[in-house]
Design brief:
CATH superfamily of the largest domain: Metal-dependent hydrolases
Radius of gyration: 23 Å
Number of strands: 26
Mean pLDDT: 97
Number of domains: 2
């Protein structure tokens, strides 16, 4: 009989502790790491990892699979990138608790904030719950290709307790706060990993209404902190515009100090190259004062994908473009090739609703053609504006040509965060800071405009191997950042390292050939809804709880993933 259920043999093990890689075998028994080293005993199944690296499964703490997890077993795109644990319910949006009368409101909020088609949510969500514990029980009966953890979202709580007053952002009274505190404690005790909230004007419903949590006052937020303090566990995740940095941080510090619980805060470079450093400085000061606060950061730009197959194009909102925008792709391309329509589109005003993004594109200086594999640190001389000038063309004429080329399948890329200086030096600085944690990939969200669940593969390929426009980062550090550090940031202590007794979540990776593929549109959402999918090459095997879920980036029949209860 075999001594082990599984043995991964002969790989270079990066165990997630930050130690340098070493040649070793990894043995698994009963879903746990049994031994790491020279393994003489046989496994019922063995994987030859010679020439590959072996890492813990990746832990992604910032996703929005709250809806997808209710109708799907495979949480892609994340599952294509070595992810074995996801945490959802971020940014204060989710689907529990909820009254039947508020189903549409929560769908509109998720549709607007996270760009998940309302028709898919209406078709896919079974609404077999009202309370958050009931939502957890529903998820607890399901099987997945990875483990999932849930957080309780502020917006849903507020609407559940306050009804339309909550949606309209009216101040919460003492009874409202007491009820929300009780429900939050109930959710944490039912296994929610934490509480999340949004305080940014960028988060709006599909009707344009700001998120219900936008202007919540200090008494309300302290009520949530008190709930976590009473429960004695749970983390907090926040996003804010930080219009008044000192006042906002005073509030966030108060929540951490009162609750005694960790908090992570979305952190990215905006149009101002150095504004993010002020936020990080506040986080560092809080940490020095003994408060556990971290900035959630990304390894590359957060960028919008533009094209004829995605939600947005460079000419979205122009009347002559919108007249044909809903046509099938071939018909749309034919219509856009018409010289008269082309002239009208290029002459029309972009409209106020699109002005911010149009300005961001900067006459094509901030638009690049996304290749395969994509270049997520593109050079200014490769922008469509620069290419147009070299070709002697008007920049917008050139952008138009790229949009309709290749049968309309080209995807253009416009970074809106972490690329103010046309390089990723800011990301390297954030990744290497002791007070940050990897996040912000938004797997399951922004399904027609952004596809950043592939952040994780980019972290390793770009920073650990391919970067030429600046310093790289050693592989042991990168592995630790996406395994041990992310797991501990949400208080998961049973995973994230390859050590005896830890959960057997493992990746076997052909690192030399690891690459992110180009994103593509697939139609696999409920009601035939479209979404961006992005796969990767080089993942030889992904293992969850000792079961092989993916081989050579293709799914097996195994669905060992389960709901995590904190």
């Amino acid at each position: 009989m075999s001594e082990y259920d599984l043995v991964v043999r002969g790989g270079t093990v990066h165990d997630g502790t930050g130690a340098a890689g070493r040649s070793a075998d990894v043995a698994v028994r009963d879903g746990r790491i049994a031994e790491v080293g020279v393994i003489s005993g046989a496994g019922a199944r063995e994987i030859d990892a010679d020439g590959a690296i072996v890492t813990p499964g990746f832990v992604d703490i910032h996703t929005h699979y709250d809806g997808q997890a209710t109708w799907a077993n495979r949480l892609s795109p994340s599952s294509h990138h070595g992810v074995t644990t996801v945490v959802m319910g971020n940014c204060g949006v989710g689907f529990a608790p909820v009254r039947p009368s508020d189903h549409d409101l929560l769908i509109e909020l998720m549709e607007g904030v996270e760009d998940i088609p309302g028709v898919a949510l209406h078709e896919g969500l079974p609404w077999a719950w009202e309370s958050f514990p009931e939502y957890m029980n529903f998820l607890g009966e399901r099987q997945f290709d990875m483990d999932i953890g849930a957080q309780v979202p502020h917006a849903a709580l507020r609407v559940y307790v306050m009804g339309q007053r909550g949606a309209d952002r009216e101040p919460a009274n003492a009874d409202d706060i007491a009820a929300m505190r009780t429900l939050t404690q109930e959710a944490i005790e039912a296994g929610a990993l934490g509480f999340t909230s949004s305080r940014t004007l960028n988060h709006r419903s599909s009707r344009g209404a700001p998120t219900p949590s936008l202007t919540a006052e200090i008494d309300e937020l302290m009520g949530f902190a008190d709930a976590l303090k009473t429960a004695g566990r749970g983390v907090m995740e926040m996003i804010s515009d930080f219009d008044d940095l000192e006042d906002e941080f005073r509030l966030l510090r108060s929540m951490v100090a009162h609750s005694g619980r960790p908090m992570s805060i979305s952190l990215a470079q905006g149009l101002s190259p150095h504004g993010w450093k002020k936020v990080l400085s506040q986080i560092e000061h809080a940490s020095a004062d003994g408060l556990v606060m971290r900035g959630q950061v990304a390894p590359r730009p957060i960028g919008i994908l533009l094209g004829l197959t995605t939600t947005l194009a460079p000419f979205t909102t122009r009347q002559s473009f919108m007249e044909v925008a809903k046509l099938p792709l071939a018909e749309k391309v034919a219509a856009l090739k018409d010289s008269e329509r082309r002239a009208r589109i290029l002459s029309e005003d972009t409209g106020a609703g699109f002005a911010r993004l149009f300005k961001l594109m900067d006459e094509g200086r901030k638009i690049w053609l996304l290749g395969d594999p994509p270049d997520y640190e593109p050079a200014p001389e490769d922008s469509l504006h620069a290419q147009a000038l070299r070709a002697g063309c008007d920049p917008w004429d050139f952008v138009y040509d790229q949009l309709i080329a290749n049968g309309g399948t080209n995807i253009l890329y416009t970074p809106f965060a972490n690329y103010a200086e046309n390089n990723l030096d800011c990301c390297r600085e954030m990744i290497m800071n002791d007070n940050t944690v990897m996040g912000l990939g938004d797997g399951g969200a922004h399904v027609g405009t952004i596809c950043d669940a592939s952040f994780i593969t980019t972290l390793f390929t770009h920073w650990g191997r391919d970067r030429t426009r600046g310093e790289q980062i050693d592989l042991a550090t990168l592995v630790k950042r996406q395994t041990h550090d992310t797991a501990r940031a949400v208080e998961l202590t049973d995973r994230g390292t390859l050590e005896p007794g830890m959960k057997a979540d493992i990746n076997v990776i052909d690192f030399d050939n690891l690459k992110v593929r180009a994103p593509e549109i697939v139609h696999d959402l409920p009601a035939g809804g479209a979404r961006l999918q992005q796969r990767a090459d080089g993942y030889l095997a992904t293992i969850v709880s000792g079961e092989v879920t993916y081989v050579n980036s293709e799914a097996t029949d195994a669905l060992p993933g389960r709901l995590i209860r904190g």
